[in-house]
């Protein structure tokens, strides 16, 4: 992997909107379902500083870049309270899937731009800004959003895919489930980073390459 300045800058510029819109979408979905928690906390903002998590937004992506693994991470989770939902299980599922859906939309927009600019790409090859935008930023933007989408769809707490579990948990245990879920994030990411060294195999990287990597290849015009 080429760790030059343009590559790092394009990674950062692609990663920030991917995670910000992911988290804002969670909060917006909850707000539309009647929960004011995220809005009251100021987390429906597009200001990246409102969503930065020191480890998940900064350190973890840098570590993954250095390890030559798929670059993904997370922002500070947007708070929401399922008690505001008419149907907590259904509401939790909608809020949970809103984040990955936002990443899918961003990936499709990026791929759409790649296809739209493809006919004029050769004629603009002499423009350095266009070359970096088209040849580096847009592909990274698409790939990072796909990584975030598929990673968060893993049905393990506290990832978004675990919202499906709320449909299966009895009503009387939902409160306990939500309390446990909010503390599961640090433990999960420690396991994600340590497991490859124990197994001598990176299951998360393999999963992302099979899912996000293959879909990325389908979406690319070249």
Secondary-structure map:
Layout: H1 5-32, H2 37-40, H3 54-66, H4 88-117, H5 128-152, H6 174-181, H7 184-199, H8 203-219
Helix pairs in contact: 1-4, 1-5, 4-5, 5-8
The portion of residues forming beta strands comes to: under 5%
Taking pLDDT < 50 over at least 5 consecutive residues as the criterion, the unreliable ranges are: none
Strands, count: 0
| Radius of gyration from CA coordinates | 18 Å
Oligomer: single chain
Q: Write down the secondary-structure element order.
A: HHHHHHHH
Structure characteristics:
222 residues, 0% strand, single chain, mainly alpha
Explain what the structure shows.
The chain is mostly helical and 222 residues long. Helices cover 64% and strands 0% of the residues. It contains 8 helices and no strands. The radius of gyration is 18 Å and the shape is globular. 33% of the residues are buried. The mean pLDDT is 88.
